[in-house]
Amino acid sequence: MKITIVLPTYNEAENLPKLVSALFMLPLDLAVLVVDDNSPDGTGQIAEDLKSTYPGRVNILHRMGKLGLRSAYIEGFHKAFELGAEVVVQMDADFSHDPLVLKEMAQQITDCDVVIGSRYTKGGSLDEHWPLWRKFLSAFGNTYARTILHFPLHDVTTGFRMWRREALSKMPLDRIRSNGYIFLVEMAYVAYLMGFDIVEVPIHFEDRRFGKSKMSLKIQLEAATRIWDVRWHYRDMRSKSHPHEIKA
């Protein structure tokens, strides 16, 4: 099973070499596709060095600037298809998502369409060093989105996901219009409305090891308003959908 991990990067020079090394230590048939938005810290050049170090296993999409999570992933998905990926992974480049969980996700993907790395299903957890206000904000944002969308997924905002090629290729990617944080919610919601078999596996979400977090209160507040746009945008799909049970 050929797995391609799509890694959007912006200023991840400290994390990228360590993450790629950790990924290639896993007993999986993995390739990494770095989608770099012209990082000023030299992440793009580091990706090129990694491509030389791991020939045939690292590919790069160099973009002209910071164009957003939506376009980074959608370009990455199409490139992964071109590279022959049978399974496509979304994950953060900052070690917030433990690479070891990919082994469990790979086992689960053989019997479903999408595997979600969930912080809020049984067994999942958040970084114990986070202050209470940050944990509350994360949990509230997740619950808020689930409630507005009438969506039974435990973790709708997680960025750790594994897709079967057959499922991801059926997604109406040209219709996905959210950017940033809310893009993750919209992708999961559309998969649910399309009746995909979704499985949640518990993860521990660790705060980034190096570099500065890109999440802010402004981004989360903007996401709260965009949830209503997502609900309205897919009103036609809601009326016709026959979602499957989400398994945890």
What does this structure look like?
This protein is an alpha/beta fold. The chain has one domain (about 5-245): Spore Coat Polysaccharide Biosynthesis Protein SpsA, Chain A (Alpha-Beta Complex), CATH 3.90.550.10. The chain has nine helices and ten strands. α1 (about 15-25) links the parallel β1 (about 5-10) and β2 (about 30-35). The protein is globular, with a radius of gyration of 17 Å.
Labels describing this entry:
248 residues; Spore Coat Polysaccharide Biosynthesis Protein SpsA, Chain A; two-stranded parallel sheet; 17% strand; alpha/beta; eight-stranded mixed beta sheet; 10 strands
Helix- and strand-based class? alpha/beta
The CATH topology corresponds to: Spore Coat Polysaccharide Biosynthesis Protein SpsA, Chain A
Poorly predicted regions are: none
Can you give the helix content as a percent range?
40-55%
Coarse morphology: globular
* Level-1 CATH class name: Alpha Beta
Q: In what order do the strands lie side by side in the largest sheet?
A: 3-2-1-4-7-5-8-10
Please state the average pLDDT score. 90
Beta fraction: 15-25%
Short synopsis of the structure:
By secondary structure, the protein is of the alpha/beta class. The protein has helices spanning 16-24, 43-53, 69-82, 101-108, 132-149, 165-168, 181-193, 217-233, 235-240; strands at residues 3-9, 30-36, 58-62, 87-90, 114-118, 125-126, 161-164, 198-202, 204-205, 246-247. It has a single domain, classed as Spore Coat Polysaccharide Biosynthesis Protein SpsA, Chain A.
